[in-house]
Structure formats: C-alpha cells, structure tokens
Design goal:
Length: 100
C-alpha cells in the first residue's frame, strides 16, 4: 500500500518529466546545440525536477533560463545536491523507493 502511495506522490514529477522528454525529442532538435551551459537548460530542469520535486525543480529551471543570455559566460552548471536521491529509469521517470 505504501508503495502505491509513494508512486502517487511521484506522479507530478513524472508528468513533468514526460513533458520535458517530449520537448527534448520534438522541439529541442530544431534549435540544435546552442546552449551556453552544460547540461542544457531542458536537461538541467529535468534533473532538478527528478531530484528536488516539481516546485523546486521548476524554480531551479526558471532561474537557469533567466541566467542564460548572450552575455553569460556559460560553462558547467550542475543542479544543487538534493537531500534525498531518487532512482530514475532510462527514460528519466522517477521511481518510488522500496520500503526496507
């Protein structure tokens, strides 16, 4: 039962991840490799949502996009280390932890 509740708790994250996966598959290739930062803004936002949740992940992604402008130096910009790490599938969906 707790596994089901954990899965439901992660549903908003996985919905956001699905939207970002679709964006990265359909829209992102149209722009090409133009991002000044590594990882790209969409990948950074996806990682932030996966590890920090929807609200904090979108906040991190929005502040990253605001930092991205023609005068930005760019470079490697990893997400802040989360308090609790979540496992993800190859497609990027967040998995519930097994109770021990």
């Amino acid at each position: 039962m707790s596994q089901i509740l954990s899965g439901l708790r992660l549903l908003p994250r996985n919905i956001c991840v699905a939207i970002l996966v679709a964006y990265r598959a359909v829209i992102s290739p149209l722009y090409g490799d133009v991002c000044r930062y590594y990882p790209s803004c969409s990948r950074y936002t996806m990682q932030a949502i996966q590890q920090h949740g929807v609200v904090r992940g979108i906040w991190f992604g929005a502040t990253r996009i605001l930092r991205c402008h023609p005068w930005a130096a760019g470079g490697v910009d990893d997400i802040p280390e989360p308090r609790e790490r979540f496992a993800t599938t190859r497609a990027g969906f967040v998995l519930a932890r097994k109770e021990q």
